[in-house]
Design goal:
It is a single chain. The protein is 37% helix and 16% strand. It is α/β, with parallel strands linked by helices. A five-stranded parallel sheet has the order 6-5-7-8-9, sandwiched between helices. Strands 1-2-4-3 form a four-stranded mixed sheet. Strand 8, helix 10 and strand 9 (197-198) form a beta-alpha-beta unit.
């Protein structure tokens, strides 16, 4: 199957979000071929996700020269990023330092669309005062992406304290009964804090896309009442 047949060039026009390249499971040659198709006649930046450093190093030199690669988030951005046009309306917070890679995937996805984000790391419930010290600042954000593994307790705590849209991203951080993120996922899905949106495990990209949809819907002018 050719790259042209699998690349969804019309997705941005349909939903406002372009297709990204999921690099996991693809060879360097396949990634390079899709990049060539995706960047042809398109001035928007291209996002590559789940791109391991060893795979990035194996990409053709012309692709690596054009790429802004971040090993922590395993993402690469090809093309010039749009400058944010307004102050950040999205906060991205992590329970622990081990969750930062997933959080950074969300931040890098937002950057591809010119959306600023403010990051807070390591404010999980094991040191609840760290969250409480930032609570008034966090209340000012329209959307808060919460990234947490282990017991996932931070989702319910933030969901019960902040008025904005809350997007929970369970991570595979943890061991034993944390079950590679399943415990955090179940905690998010069963939270008694109303209105929490939940992504799949380690899906910072999906959380960012959800946040973009929320903000764009909020910015739309409502229809005139007859």
């Amino acid at each position: 199957m050719s790259p042209e047949s699998v690349w969804d060039a019309a997705r941005r026009a349909r939903i406002g979000l372009a297709e990204a390249i999921l690099c996991e499971g693809k060879t360097p040659a396949q990634i390079a071929a899709i990049c060539a198709v995706a960047t042809k006649d398109d001035r928007h930046p291209l996002l590559l996700t789940r791109l391991e450093s060893t795979v990035f190093a194996a990409l053709p030199p012309e692709v690596r020269r054009e790429a802004d690669y971040d090993a922590l988030s395993r993402t690469a951005l090809l093309g010039r990023l749009p400058a944010p046009t307004e102050a950040a309306r999205i906060a991205v917070v992590t329970a622990g330092t081990s969750d930062i890679g997933v959080a950074r995937e969300a931040v890098r996805t937002l950057a591809a669309y010119g959306e600023a984000a403010t990051e807070w790391a390591d404010i999980g419930v094991a040191g609840l005062w760290r969250l409480l010290e930032r609570l008034e600042e966090l209340k000012r954000f329209a959307v808060v992406i919460v990234v947490a593994g282990m017991d996932g307790a931070l989702f319910s705590v933030i969901g019960g304290l902040l008025p904005g849209a809350i997007i929970a991203v369970p991570t595979s951080t943890g061991y034993g009964v944390s079950a590679k993120g399943e415990t955090a996922l179940h905690a998010a899905l069963s939270s008694c804090a109303p209105g929490i949106l939940v992504t799949n495990i380690d899906n910072g990209y999906g959380a960012a896309c959800a946040a973009l949809r929320i903000l764009r819907a909020a910015r739309q002018t409502p229809p005139a009442v007859a």
